[in-house]
Amino acid sequence: MSIVPMEKINIFSLSANKSAVLDLLQRKEIVEVREIKEKDIPQDVFSLRPEPEEFNYELELSEIEFAISFLKKASEEKPGFVDAFLPTVARADEEDLFSCFREFDYKGVVEKCKSLERQISNLRTLRAKLFTDITCLSPWKNLDIKLDEISETDKTCGLLGVVPLKIFPEFLKTLEKLSPTVYIEDVSRTKTEVNVLIVFLKEEKEAVLDFLKKSKFEEVGLEISRRTPREQISHIELLMKNTNEELEILEKESGALAKDILKLMCAHDYLLQKKAYSDTKAKLLSSDYTFMLEGWIPRKQFDALKKGLAEISSEIECVKVKPAKGEEPPVALSNKAPMRPLETIIRIYGMPRYHNIDPTPYLSAFFILFFGLCLGDAGYGISLALLSLIIMKKFSIKESTKGLLRLLMYGGLASAVVGVFTGGWFGIDLQALPPYLGWVQSLRLIDPIKDPIFMLVLALMLGVFQILFGIAIQMYINIRDGNVADAVLDDGLWIYFITSVVLYVFATAGALGAAFKSIAGYMVLAGAGILVLTQGRRQKNIFLKAATGILSLYKLVGYFSDVLSYSRLLALGLATAVIAMVVNLIGGMTAGSIPILGILLTAVIYTIGHLFNLTISSLGAFIHSGRLQFAEFFSKFVEGGGKEFRPFRKETKYVNLS
Amino acid sequence: MNLGLALAILGAAVSMGLAGTGSAIGVGIAGEAAGGVTTEDPEKFGRLLLLQALPGTQGIYGFLAAFWVMLKINLLGTPVVISTETGWMLFFACLPIAIAGLFSGIYQGRVSAAGAGVVARRPEETGKAVIFAAMVETYAVLGLLTTILLINGIPL
């Protein structure tokens, strides 16, 4: 229900107890250990110093991570499409982790993976090079000269090169004119270029080269070998085949290693816990015989910790200390189990500050209701709730994902309720239902498609209500913190003012009777007057007081746009309903088009279409009802920027500890 | 030849066409960024696909508006005979989602592309990136709402 009260603690003891204390803390998962900065160290315990690290966990962990991702790619079973969204997590207990670390030769596997990866990437580079070689050689296939004989013989020199097709006849002529002994072979042609071999006498070398330099001739350098181009190509192709075979063998080998992935993961997570341990140890201060630890603990857990420490040894001192000036405790939220999934939304936004308030209970009803309105279809709602439930029960998934699924389940149930009242059942036209299903129709209170204005007013009223609620919470915080003047003159006054404006709007629309209109009008004027008089109270200068007071009325525009933002509840609800209708319409059209096959096609269209709509509408519902909380609701009372409480614990990345 | 009907159809076509273009560009921009991140880290595919899909809603809103017009003039059955003025009205009513969809789709795509950077470096903060993109979408939602309310208010 709230932000957990925290205590700052110091623990002192003899070095002999250090590991026992740290073990206890890691097991209990209740203390966030802070690093002690050098300037905070009291002068008389000057000799305290941080411990050096003895083992390179970072390196070890990153190597195992590399091996895991390498083997995942190599493994024959490719992850399915669903896995990309809902990665499943293996279960293991601590024994498994430890035994994998101790008995399984993870280092060997890592080394093997490294060498396999190196070999495979070398072979792939080689294959790419061979491929380029073939591409380079193929234009010269018809050249029947060994490659090492081209450039030089006793009397002649040779060059391979490319000449643009357009200038080729002229190129030939000029070259022949230059020297009648020049030999030119037109080896092959592409659309724009001619590949030529030019052979000339050594004594004419300078003249020919000079000409070639000026012409558009481009020399091509091929790798020297004792084969003709054709032979060389078939030689490379043979090499290529061997390379491919070798690659295949290596890939099979890595695929076979993939069976050890789970063990690697266990070893990784074991090391990860060790790393957390050693990182925490590095945050302590130690002298030759003693150590000191500083951290935060939830107030409620303090006695339990003291008891646990006393069981280790009587020579451990654990005391509460006052936080330094300006130091803020880390923030942990504590809510009852059914409410906990909603903390997911707070985490997206970031933690509130310690002295603020936990918004979870206040936003919960709104978030779920808004989700329901945005999805707004009983059929979709029930499907979503069931799907979430099944995935939660059937698959082993991360805790954080579970919270999200539970949230989707709540949202699904809410939209089931909304759908019953608005008559949304997979977008089916309720009038067309058979008479025995008439009760479905009778449950419908409103049809948003026929009467969107009513839904719009409802959405805006919900907005007014949530915004007033938000200001009320701010008022409560102000009173709690002793700022009664602010509570009354800012929050109280605005609540009054907004209410009177809304009443005036309703009265003008004729919803409240004519007599009320002038009363509401005076209420608004009075509210505005008091705002002008009070909102400038922090200014010293009389003119600034007046100006700030008048400008404060501008805040009304802000509230107005906040309220309008809630119109999205109607728009998204309509969107779901209309897409569902369209799916039914298209499906219905195909049903009659082709006999038998048409019905099958319709079934496919219904399934895919409604699944699509369910997905995008749920996504939209989640995002937009979340946004209403963040942008419209939180801005009234939440002060963001708190640091999340991260207790020293047994962290895992790949497996769920059971 | 009924000009009113033609204008109504033009409205439907414009709302789908422009809003769809906005989405196509937006999804394209976001997809380029997402593709870049995927080459480095294929495991982030799910989160990235979510980000890429965000600017896709404008196209859907445009389609909804087009469908709303079709419902209004019963284009899928026997079309209602409407005057030229009514046709113009329907056409103008389609403009909010058409224009807002076109531009918000493009800009939402850019925000989503920036979000792909968030996913690359701090995948645990994907939620925040999604919310940033959703801020842009607000105006497409309002455009759709305006179009729907306008069409609803046009007397036949």
Outline the low-pLDDT stretches of chain A.
Answer: none
Proportion of strand residues of chain B: under 5%
Provide a count of the helices of chain B: 5
The end-to-end span of chain A amounts to 27 Å
- Along the chain, the helix and strand elements of chain B come as HHHHH
* Sheet of most strands of chain B: none
Amino- and carboxy-terminal Cα gap of chain B: 18 Å
Q: Count every beta strand of chain B, where a strand is a DSSP E run of 2 or more residues.
A: 0
Strand content of chain A: 5-15%
Gross geometry of chain A: extended
The most extensive contact between chains is: A-B, 35 and 31 residues
Assembly annotation? heterodimer
Indicate the percent of residues in helices of chain A: 55-70%
Give the helix/strand class of chain A: alpha+beta
Give the tally of β-strands of chain A. Answer: 13
Q: Measured on Cα atoms, how large is the radius of gyration of chain B?
A: 18 Å
Radius of gyration of chain A: 38 Å
Helix content estimate of chain B: over 70%
The helix/strand class of chain B is mainly alpha
